[in-house]
Amino acid sequence: METSLLFFSQRNMWESKEKTFFKLMPGSAKEEASKEAKIRAKEKRNRLSLLLQKSEFHEEPQARRSAHLAGVTRVCPEEAIRWGESFDKLLSHKDGLETFTRFLKTEFSEENIEFWMACEDFKKSKDPQQMILKAKAIYEKFIQNDAPQEVNLDFHTKELIVKSITQPTLHSFDAAQSRVYQLMEQDSYTRFLKSDIYSDLVEGRPQRPTNLRRRSRSFTYNEFQDVKSDVAIWF
């Protein structure tokens, strides 16, 4: 609404200035200037119209996101308290996993939980071709040097994965997944239990808006469902 008012007020201001300018000019020059002014006015209107559309486009999704965040974790305090008993209990509960992921996004470290979820999904693989594709997807997104969402692993653990990536087994990522799990349990989980996100749930308070960063390409285990079975695309 405010953007719309700004659009029309600026448009009226430009038109008023142009009318005053034309009154002071001679005939032929006035006609030529009038044509140029119309072109400029059209360009200004187009730019303001585009600005208005962008503003409305961003405002509406933001409202949807806020509403989504408000209703995402309708968890009873008793359940939230159980999450504080162990890290495993937190991750084994659907709402607990979603809440912890939301917390990690505020710390810019969601790649850890996304890697852990990807490994969980990988271990459910049954088709050999799908296993190869998923293994390479995990490696390229999380393991290799300068990967888009590289997780913190030691050289030895990475080398074990590299050696088995062409002929992976269901246990190819066990060591790496265990390492990331320990990092989250000892570090992120401790801070999560002290966070406003968790304390609000335990106290039964409404969830506060959470500032989430946007990533260029976030990767989760759900993407594996769309992996094609053509192994050749990886080589």
Automatic annotation (TrEMBL):
PROSITE patterns tied to this protein: RGS
Matching Gene3D superfamilies: 1.10.196.10, Regulator of G-protein Signalling 4, domain 2
Domain of life from the UniProt record: Eukaryota
Keyword line: Signal transduction inhibitor
GO biological process terms, semicolon-separated: negative regulation of signal transduction
Domain RGS: 86-202
Entry keyword annotation includes Cell wall biogenesis/degradation: no
Residues spanning the membrane: none
One Pfam family per UniProt: RGS
Protein name in UniProt: Regulator of G protein signaling 18
Organism: Myotis lucifugus
Lineage: Eukaryota, Metazoa, Chordata, Craniata, Vertebrata
